[in-house]
Specification:
With about 300 residues, the protein is α+β, with helices and mostly antiparallel strands. Helices cover about 25% and strands about 25% of the residues. The protein folds into 3 domains: about 80 residues, Uridine Diphospho-n-acetylenolpyruvylglucosamine Reductase, domain 2; about 130 residues, 2-Layer Sandwich (Uridine Diphospho-n-acetylenolpyruvylglucosamine Reductase, domain 3); about 80 residues, Uridine Diphospho-n-acetylenolpyruvylglucosamine Reductase, domain 1. The longest helix is centred in the C-terminal third of the chain and has 19 residues.
Length: about 300
């Protein structure tokens, strides 16, 4: 497996946080595959990130990553700057009927804070395995709800270093998509809840947890839902009908438990996983005439 060559961090502006050259994505993204980040940057705080981006050569690409729960990084690595927000960006607080969450906070943490404050409407975040920032960027959703339904505003550090707080309407949300430009980084989000019964909220979160455990390969090296649900269809049903349940390429396999999940059986490369996904797409198209769209983000250089 090839990795991006380690680069001289002297080429970057000063940063109060940390910079690591040649940092392997396989150490932390869910699939545990892929090459290295040319530079992996962990800013100390919002001001640190803003000044860093303002001084960074505009030609250098910037890619924010959370826990990598819906991501394939190709085996040749990812050029430019990858920004991973540390725990300082994971604070969650409740303000009236609003939940303010740092972008590095996990969905379950946000949902739990809302539950503890007897706020309903955020229970579905219990089923989102990524961070609040990633959830805003991709309009994450589950159980007939998505981020567009609950977002009030989010603070973004633009690629040029400007810090802006934007209303939900500025994100141009559609199914599993926002119009946030590449290189812009969500650093905080404010979600709205509605007063509810804590017991009922807890029961709904428990139901979501149990349903996920029963139906999804949560204990495997996976990347979450692979394909978007086409209008009028369920992706998993199309994959199953095309005979792809259990299909393997190299170390990658279509989950036997849930056919809209791909898994790394132990020695998969990112190329195995991406090739498997494209093979599934081709088989579904031939069988049903429906062209599946990737939900998993795929970035980086092919080895």
């Amino acid at each position: 497996m090839m990795a991006a060559p380690a680069s001289n961090t002297n080429a970057l502006p000063p940063l109060a946080g940390s910079v690591e050259a040649g940092a392997p994505f396989a150490d932390f993204i869910w699939f545990r595959t892929g090459g290295a980040a040319e530079w992996l940057v962990r800013p100390k705080d919002i001001a640190d990130l803003a000044q860093f981006l303002a001084a960074l050569d505009p030609a250098i690409p910037v890619f924010p990553v959370g826990v990598g729960s819906n991501l394939i990084v190709r085996d040749g690595g990812l050029p430019g700057v990858t920004v991973r927000l540390p725990k300082a960006f994971a604070k969650v607080s409740v303000e009236g009927h609003m939940v303010r969450a740092g972008a590095a906070a996990m969905g379950i943490t946000v949902a739990s804070a809302a539950r503890d404050a007897s706020l309903a409407g955020l229970e579905f975040l219990r089923g989102i395995p990524g961070t609040a920032g990633g959830a805003v960027r991709m309009n994450a959703g589950a159980y007939a709800r998505d981020v567009a339904d609950i977002l009030v505003e989010a603070t973004v550090v633009r690629r040029d270093g400007r810090i802006e707080t934007l209303p939900a309407s500025a994100f141009g949300f559609s199914y599993r998509h926002s119009a946030l430009p590449e290189g812009d980084i969500v650093v905080e989000a404010v979600f709205k809840g509605t007063p509810g019964d804590k017991t009922a909220i807890t029961a709904e979160m428990d139901r979501i947890a149990a349903e996920r455990e029963a139906s999804q390969p949560l204990r495997s090296r996976t990347g979450g839902s692979t394909f978007k649900n086409p209008a009028g269809h369920k992706a998993w049903q199309l994959v199953d009908a095309a005979g792809c349940r259990g299909l393997k390429i190299g170390g990658a396999q279509v989950s036997e438990k849930h056919t809209n999940f791909l898994i790394n059986t132990g020695d998969a490369t990112s190329a195995d996983i991406e090739t498997l996904g494209d093979t599934v797409r081709a088989r579904v198209l031939a069988q049903s005439g429906v062209e599946l769209e990737w939900e998993i983000e795929r970035v980086g250089v092919k080895a």
